Amino acid sequence: MNIILKPQHLLSKKPNLTHFFSSKTPIPLPYGTETNDPSYKDVPKPVRDKSERKPYVTPMKMLIKRAKEEKEARKLQPCRMLENPPDNGLLVPQLVPVAYQVYEAREVLLSGVSKLVKVIPVQKCRFCHELHIGHVGHEIRTCTGPGSGMRSSTHVWRKGRVHDVVFSPKSYHLYDRVGKPRVVHDESRRVPRIPAIVELCIQAGVDLEKHPTKRRTKPVYSIEGRIVDFEQAKENDENERNLHDENLDPLMGSDLGTKFDEARNFILDKETDQLEESHEGVTDLREISIGTMESWFKMISGAKKIMEKYGVLTCGYCPEVQVGPKGHKVRMCKATKHQHRDGLHAWQEATIDDLVAPNYVWHVRDTNGLPLDNKLKRYYGKAPAVVELCVQAGAPVPDQYRSMMRLDVVPPDRDEVDLVA
Q1: How far is 356 from 397, CA to CA, in rounded Å?
Q2: What is the 3-state secondary structure (H, E, C) of 282-308?
Q3: How far apart are CA 285 and CA 129, in angstroms?
Q4: What Å distances lie between residue 387 and 106, 317, 352, 367, 401, CA to CA?
């Protein structure tokens, strides 16, 4: 037998696999590592148990550390003027145009969804919050409403509305977000409740006649953790509410105030032109769906920027939301363990999903085909209700939701379920 010996440097050298794959050939990832891709989004998990608390956005150790640092700072300097907005009662100048853009995008979104709902039917379950976009409701048994056990968790469908597709929880409107940041229980009937994203835009700089708010020209002081305003108003409250535009100029300076006025007038003119076009009527359904989806992403991205500066709180056990530095004290929580809290909410930091609920629905590939089968639900994807509505109306599928909608998965036929592992 002839034995061929190889040099030692050839035995220790690892094979170079780059020669076997070209730069254009996609290399399949092993199962379970797809989540490393930042653009990959899996189907959202089922709704959490009502007894479980929402996960904290900021870890509890970090919250405790911040509280200790703030306590030490108050001891070292009991009386100090707050410098950073919006904690000092002033506006963040660079976020004022963003607030107007978010408010404008919301108006365009509601207008577009109201038109699409007339063409693309929306199904809403009578007993739970399940929503379906299509002519026929799906057959997936996920109902958790009253009497679901006797119906084998099947849904009972009815016609949906615009607020079912675009759902935004309501928040108490704060006239002075720094001087009086909390609404007590006795004031619950007197203080109006408006959509939380509208309240966020108002606190960030949007001026609405129906919902006035106080605009300061000087920062407030903090005395042992309590906010004190030494600014003496020369006019009564009614005149202050009507002079929002004049109070913004000394806040941001002459140059910034002029630029802000020009940007705000441009946005308002653009909004007026879009409303006039909507009244004239646009026949192309695809253009409406594309514009609606763009306004959805514009609203979400702008709200995220504002939430980095302006606080938004949510209850850890129920969907209640309060925009402001502190949560209200209205005893209206009916979630788990509310008896131990005397009906008060367990406030914590909110996310964008708490402010604007995406309301994920099952993706329908063939709108004229059979309804979705319960046995094939593992092959179906999901998407936010607004995205699914716009896609069925002709808008292209967004890249960030392709993996969630499982467009690369081919579901088997109904008679092939038993043959698939």
Answers
A1: 20
A2: CCCHHHHHHHHHHHHHHHHHHHHHHHC
A3: 27
A4: 15, 27, 16, 15, 9
| CA–CA separation, 75 and 224 (whole Å) | 8
Give the separation between CA 350 and CA 352, rounded to whole angstroms: 7
Q: Phi/psi at 64 (nearest 5 deg)?
A: -65, -40
Residue 320 contacts residue 347 (beta carbons within 8 Å): no
What average pLDDT does the chain have? Answer: 79
Cα 307 to Cα 312: distance, rounded to the nearest angstrom: 7
DSSP 9-62: HHHHSPP-GGGTS-TTSPPPPPTT-GGGSTT--PPPPPPPPTTSPPPPSS-HHH
Q: Parallel, antiparallel, or unpaired: how do β-strands 312-315 and 79-81 relate?
A: unpaired
pLDDT at 310: 94
| The predicted structure's pLDDT at residue 37 | 62
pLDDT (0 to 100) of residue 95:
94
Tokens of 357: 């609920």
pLDDT at residue 24 is higher than 50: no
How far is Cα of residue 43 from the mean position of the Cα atoms in its chain?
Answer: 17
H or E element: which one contains 109?
A: helix 96-117
Largest CA distance in the chain: 109
Size (the chain), residues = 421
The pLDDT of residue 36: 54
- Residue 412: pLDDT band by 50, 70, 90 thresholds? confident
**Beta 79-81 vs 321-323: how paired, if at all?**
unpaired
User: What's the pTM?
Assistant: 0.76
Tokens of 148: 């679901």
What is the rounded distance in angstroms from the CA atom of residue 193 to the CA atom of residue 174? 9
Contacts 24+ apart (CB under 8 A), 375-378: 375/414, 375/417, 376/411, 376/412, 376/414, 376/417, 377/140
pLDDT the model gives residue 12: 41
Angle between helices 196-204 and 96-117 (to 10 degrees): 150
Q: How far apart are CA 108 and CA 298, in angstroms?
A: 11
